[in-house]
Design a protein that fits this description.
Elements (H helix, E strand, L loop, with lengths): L18 H15 L3 H14 L4 H11 L11 H17 L6 H9 L10 H19 L4 H12 L16 H18 L9 E3 L4 E3 L2
Antiparallel strand pairs: 1-2
Helix pairs in contact: 1-2, 2-3, 3-4, 5-6, 6-7, 7-8
């Protein structure tokens, strides 16, 4: 690995038979969680070069293009929707199939780009789509828990503590998803490095 990409040992295992693809997924994850979406996308594109049938590479590109807590308008929502749809299409044709949690997250992702008049509507649609994914897989999957926590935070980006009362009930749910995710990372016997986790109190992403 060149020094350019030697940024840590985050591992996000996805369904792929290509070691090179998995390496570039991991490198992209480091950039994505570090709020460097452009570089993350380049890494995920490289993953697709080695494994064109890697549905999660398309998923992560869509995630990078989508609105996030630091940029509520998103990098490129039009491209994000295309990538989310590509993830769905690729997943349906995956020769070896996907893990159930991957399929569930891929099915939820297009909701993040729903064409609504209100940005709040988009956030709620995606949050509602992610909730059953979290309820089914979040207990054991740190990534699922972190993504769901972020979807809750996007109900009121940077205003969780000053927003309208109808958003307040989401705060304990956000804290629960983020904190339980951190606990699971610490419980791993020899993790290469915990996934970056969301901290709803200050909207940052850090290492547990």
């Amino acid at each position: 690995m060149s020094a350019e990409f030697d940024l840590g040992g985050v591992v996000v295992e996805v369904s792929t038979s290509s070691e090179e693809c998995q390496q570039w997924i991991n490198r992209g994850a480091v950039q994505m969680f570090g709020f460097n979406p452009e570089e993350a996308i380049r890494c995920f594109r490289k993953a697709l070069y080695f494994s064109p049938d890697c549905a999660m590479a398309h998923y992560f590109i869509a995630h990078c293009c989508a609105p996030n807590y630091n940029d509520a308008s998103g990098l490129d929502c039009s491209q994000g929707l295309k990538e989310a749809q590509m993830a769905l299409e690729t997943a349906s044709q995956a020769p070896a199939g996907l893990e159930d949690w991957e399929s569930a997250m891929i099915k939820a992702k297009p909701h993040q780009f729903t064409d609504e008049e209100s940005g709040d509507g988009v956030s709620r649609s995606y949050c509602n789509a992610m909730r059953p994914v979290y309820e089914k897989f979040g207990e054991e999957n740190t990534l699922v828990a972190a993504v769901f926590a972020e979807s809750l935070m996007m109900l009121a980006p940077w205003t969780l503590w000053t927003s309208q009362p109808d958003v307040k009930p989401a705060i304990p749910e956000t804290e629960g998803a983020g904190e339980s995710s951190g606990e699971r990372s610490r419980e791993r016997p020899h993790p290469p490095r915990p996934l970056p986790l969301l901290h709803p109190h200050h909207g940052a992403v850090g290492q547990s």
